[in-house]
Design brief:
Subcellular location: Cell membrane
Family: Belongs to the drug/metabolite transporter (DMT) superfamily. 10 TMS drug/metabolite exporter (DME) (TC 2.A.7.3) family.
Distance between the termini: 19 Å
Membrane topology: Multi-pass membrane protein
Order of helices and strands: HHHHHHHHHHHHHHH
Number of strands: 0
Oligomer: single chain
Organism: Xenorhabdus lircayensis
Shape: globular
Number of helices: 15
Largest sheet: none
Radius of gyration: 19 Å
Structural class: mainly alpha
Strand content: under 5%
Helix content: over 70%
Domain EamA: 7-141, 156-290
Amino acid sequence: MRTTPQLAVMLTLIATFFWGSNFQVTKFALVSLPPWTASVERFFFAVICIFIFLAWKEGIHGKVLKQNWRVFVVLGAIGVAGFNGAFFVGLQSSSPITAALIMATTPISANILEAVIYRRMPEFVRVVGMVISLLGVALVITNGQLFFGGAVQVATGDMIIFVGSLGWAIYTVGTRVFVSGATPLETTSWTMLFGAVILVFIAFFVESPVPALSAGTFESHLACIYIGIGGSTFAYLFWNMGIAIRGAGKTAIFFNFVPIFALAIQVMMGDIPSLAQVIGIVITIVGVLLGQGGIAVWSVFRGDAKNNRL
C-alpha cells in the first residue's frame, strides 16, 4: 500500500496520540511497580521491537556500533536512562498534563542548546516562544498562584520532569552533533539498548526489580507493554514515516498535539483542569508554536494541503 500524504498525516497523529497517552498510562504502571522497575519493563519490550524493526528495515551493522559505541552509551545514559527515569519518578507526584506541557517545551530547549554549541545567536522569535511557553507551564504548575497571588506550591515531580526534559534536549542535539555514519533508526536502537542496560543496573541498585515485577498487578504490566510497544516503537515508526513522506518541518508541528491528547485523556478520566490551567495550556502551546517557527510551518502545511487536493 502506497503511503499518501493524507495517510502520513494520520500516522503522525497516531504517533502523537501514543506519546500523549503515555503520561496517563504511566500512572497505571506506577500503581504497583516502582519507577525504575517500570521503566526497565517498558524498555524490555521496546528494545526487542525496535531491533526486530531495525533488522527488517536496514539490517544490523557492526561498523556503526564500533564507530559510535561511546557516543551511544553516553546518549543512552542521558536520553534514555536519565530521561525515562526522571519521567517515571516525576510522574509519582506530577500530573500527566503538566508533564506533557513540560515535555512540549523540549524542542525549543534543543534549538537554543544547538545555537550555543554552534556559537550563533538563536532567532529572536524562538527565545520569545521559549519565554512564553515557560510562563504557560508555570501557570499550569502553580495553578495560577504564581501570577494571581497565594502560596506557590510546585510538585517535586514537576522539577524532576523538567530536568528530564533538558536531558532529552541534550540527547536530541547530541544525536545530530556527535553521531556519525548512522541512520536515525540505528541511533535510536543502539541508544535505547544501552540506556535500557543502564536502567537495569540502576533498578537493581535502588530497588528490588525481580520481587517488584512478581508483585506487580496485571494492569501495571499491561501498561508497561503498551508504553513499550505502542508508546515507544510504533510511535517512533509512525513519526518517521510521516517525516519520510512530508518532511521534518511539516511533521514537527504535530508534536504540539501531544499535550492536547494528554489533556483530552485526563478529562476523560474525570480530572478536569482549572481555568488558570486551561489558560496556561493555551499559552504554552502558543509559545511552543512560536519557538518552533510553527506559524510559518502551518502556512506551508496549508499550502501543501491545497496542492494535494483531488
